[in-house]
Design goal:
Structural class of chain B: alpha/beta
Order of helices and strands of chain B: EHEHEHHEHEHE
CATH architecture of chain B: 3-Layer(aba) Sandwich
Strand content of chain B: 15-25%
Radius of gyration of chain B: 16 Å
Largest sheet of chain A: none
Order of helices and strands of chain A: HHHHHHHHHHHHHHHHHHHHHHHHHH
Number of strands of chain A: 0
Shape of chain B: globular
Number of strands of chain B: 6
Helix content of chain A: over 70%
Oligomer: heterodimer
Shape of chain A: elongated
Low-confidence stretches of chain A: 25-32, 41-51, 108-126
Largest interface: A-B, 15 and 15 residues
CATH class of chain B: Alpha Beta
Number of helices of chain A: 26
Number of domains of chain A: 4
Radius of gyration of chain A: 35 Å
Chain lengths: 502, 181
């Protein structure tokens, strides 16, 4: 046996690797891919996939930040996968993500570089080596940089450096085994990366922006009855497949104001991408729907409200008041709860509302009116004359304290705030029995009612109806206050009918 | 008095299962329920079905043979629902209904009314979907009898299977062929 036959040349080694690769099931599209297969280092390690969940969680966290520029993220990721200049894009994406994480001011365990490492790259090869290889591959030369090729092969195929000193048969055997392992690893890794990115894309997909056609559709929907809206949903089922996320987001307030709660809950909100469902405004809408008598899932409403991170004092007060109101609805409307227990819970609820009313001296009218309703319920149920007389003093005191918050909002440019401030003031009169509150409410609606969303009117009605039901169910009583409240419900009913008619 | 604890198994499946495969599906369901009976010693099994033709009734049949209770949840008032079935099928429906542990009916969805769902329509489909979802919500695990072909139909088996998946329910799939595949 001749000595030169015992050791393989660089050229022979490469040739043999190509032959072995050709035996595998892996397909490639041409020389460029072949070069990358042989020479590019594996861009990622298997160990990173153990952190897939963590990675997705990190991205989800970023997506939850309203300032997160998801389009930029996807553009940069796409550039890395498809572009020629992946090095600079990789750096750009890295900088972008670090910036976003810093902005969130949260500690994220995952190294952002891990994300970059998981994006499949085309090749990391130096230009010289690429030329060298291509020249050899195209038969322009049979010389190839010895050191470079061997180092790359060692890295990619996990060969020991001493392999090159061994006999041709041993080298060939090692190459054959190495190629199989290389292809398997690479296919597996590539599949996992593709799956991961597909998952991320599906989970946090960015649909194209709302189209002109969709905007026109929204205009049509504004005038649709609930029945027609059902037909629309059925023909575009499921919404997420036929419409952009922008469209779905814009559809939500339209249906909410119209009170199409079931469609919102079962057809629209669930078509939203996961990260959008986590938004504060969406959670508030969801909680409101669960807390409505039509859906009547009060504990679900309470649970959602408990997960919303509140901002300023007023928001804390609003969220807590609504949460307590859901507990109130759950407990007092539960037919399995004994009457005596319900009476006790009225006192507990009173204490809860009082705490929120006094929270940081906010004295907001929202917990205030709820507190008043509970005081009235409590006084009526106790059938204690003294308690009832003391009520006027309590109501005056609470009204006096929440008056600044009413004054702040009663002329607000925000229709909803303006409505609630004014209606609360009138509800105080209604419960105190001063003047002719029912007529005043009718007048207020006549003058300022045009812009009031139906959903707000329904909320007021719901509050009043609940008050009547609670007193009647627990005590079976008939009280003059109940008549006044009942008349007000009818006034609002008439107004809503005329509004729908107009 | 201690309340009974139930392990609830919901069913969703095609209405037009191949008659030639009924026997094998019967055995598969039976084996599965027997296994559950063995595993769930602390609790009693309860099947949730809407007694549509095909899978819904097959599981009721298996339940009766194993002396397992089943609750019937109807997508709409009985008189309306029966219009879905032929005369013979109506008799079968009433037979299984008589043997049910309890019966409940889903309320009208959104703008639906009696007259709106009295004939086959998209409005009726909403009722089918709601009953399917309600069963998923109530169930501890779901049995899905499907050919796996997505047809995008609201309230269809695959629609309900997707919903069950999104609710992270335990799902046992029995693959089966349909008459009109």
């Amino acid at each position: 046996m001749r000595l030169e036959e015992e050791k393989m040349t660089n050229s022979q080694i490469l040739q043999y690797i190509i032959e072995e690769l050709g035996k595998t099931t892996l397909s490639w599209g041409g020389d460029k891919e072949l070069f990358e297969l042989i020479c590019a280092p594996l861009p990622y390690g298997n160990e990173t996939f153990q952190k897939r969940r963590e990675l997705k969680q990190t991205i989800l966290t970023l997506y939850q930040n309203e300032n997160f520029d998801s389009k930029k993220f996807h553009t940069l990721a796409d550039n890395i996968i498809c572009g020629d200049n992946e090095g600079s894009y990789r750096q750009e994406l890295d900088d972008f993500l670090r910036e976003q994480v810093e902005e969130l001011e949260i500690h994220i365990q995952t190294d952002m570089r891990m994300l970059l490492n998981q994006i499949p790259c085309k090749c990391e090869g130096e230009k010289n080596y690429k030329n060298n290889f291509n020249n050899w591959k195209n038969g322009k030369t049979d010389r190839i940089n010895r050191q470079e090729v061997k180092q790359r092969l060692e890295k990619n195929f996990y060969f020991a450096p001493s392999l090159w000193e061994m006999h041709e048969t041993t080298v060939k055997q090692a190459i054959a085994e190495g190629v199989i392992q290389f292809v398997n690893n690479r296919t597996k890794v590539a599949e996992e990366v593709t799956t991961l990115f597909d998952e991320i894309r599906n989970e946090f997909k960015i649909k194209e922006q709302i189209s002109e056609k969709e905007l026109e559709t929204l205009d049509v929907i504004k005038g649709m009855s609930e029945k027609s809206m059902m037909a629309f949903i059925a023909t575009h089922y499921p919404l997420a497949k036929s419409h952009s996320q922008d469209f779905i987001q814009k559809l939500i307030p339209i249906l909410f104001e119209k009170g199409y709660y079931e469609l919102l809950l079962h057809d629209v909100l669930e078509s939203l991408d996961v990260h959008l469902q986590e938004r504060k405004q969406i959670k508030k809408i969801k909680a409101h729907i669960y807390g409505s008598p039509r859906i009547a899932e009060y504990l679900k409403a309470f649970n959602i409200l408990s997960t919303i991170e509140s901002g300023d004092d007023i928001e804390i007060v609003e969220l807590r008041t609504e949460a307590i109101s859901n507990i109130r609805r759950h407990h007092l409307s539960d037919v399995t709860v004994q009457i005596e227990e319900k009476k006790k819970s009225v006192e507990t609820l009173l204490a809860y509302y009082e705490d929120v009313f006094k929270l940081n001296d906010t004295f907001h009218y929202y917990p205030a009116i709820n507190l008043i309703y509970m005081f009235v319920v409590n006084a009526i149920l106790s059938e204690d004359e003294k308690k009832f007389h003391a009520l006027t003093h309590t109501m005056n005191d609470i009204y006096h304290r929440c008056k600044p918050s009413i004054m702040r909002d009663e002329n607000s440019s925000d229709t909803t705030k303006r409505y609630y401030a004014n209606i609360t003031k009138l509800e105080f009169s209604l419960l105190k029995g001063l003047g002719s509150p029912v007529a005043e409410i009718a007048r207020f609606l006549e003058l300022d009612g045009e812009e009031i969303p139906l959903v707000s009117l329904t909320r007021t009605q719901r509050q009043m109806q609940f008050f009547i039901d609670t007193v009647r169910v627990i005590q079976g009583l008939d009280h003059p206050i109940l008549h006044r409240v009942q008349s007000t419900i009818e006034v609002i009913d008439d107004f809503m009918e005329s509004k729908k008619f107009n | 008095m201690q309340l009974k604890r139930y392990y609830k198994i919901g069913i969703s499946g095609h209405r037009d299962l191949l008659p030639s495969q009924m026997e094998i599906h019967f055995s598969m369901l039976k084996d599965h329920l027997l296994k559950l009976k063995r595993d769930q010693k602390e609790t009693e099994l309860l099947i949730l079905t809407s007694l549509a033709e095909g899978a819904d009734r097959l599981i009721a049949q298996v339940a009766l043979s194993l002396d397992i209770s089943y609750d019937v949840i109807l997508p709409m008032p009985e008189s309306l629902y029966m219009q879905d079935f032929s005369h013979k099928s109506q008799e079968e429906f009433l037979y299984y209904l008589r043997h049910a542990h309890a019966k409940d009916t889903i309320q009208f969805y959104a703008a639906n009314t009696y007259s709106l769902i009295s004939k086959p329509s998209i409005y009726r489909d909403f009722q089918y979907r709601q009953v399917g979802r309600h069963i998923v919500d109530m169930a501890d695990e779901m049995i899905i009898m499907t050919n796996g072909i997505e047809n995008g139909k609201m309230g269809g088996t695959n629609d309900i299977a997707s919903y069950a998946q999104s609710c992270d329910k335990i799902i046992n799939t029995i693959w089966c062929d349909r008459l009109c595949a």
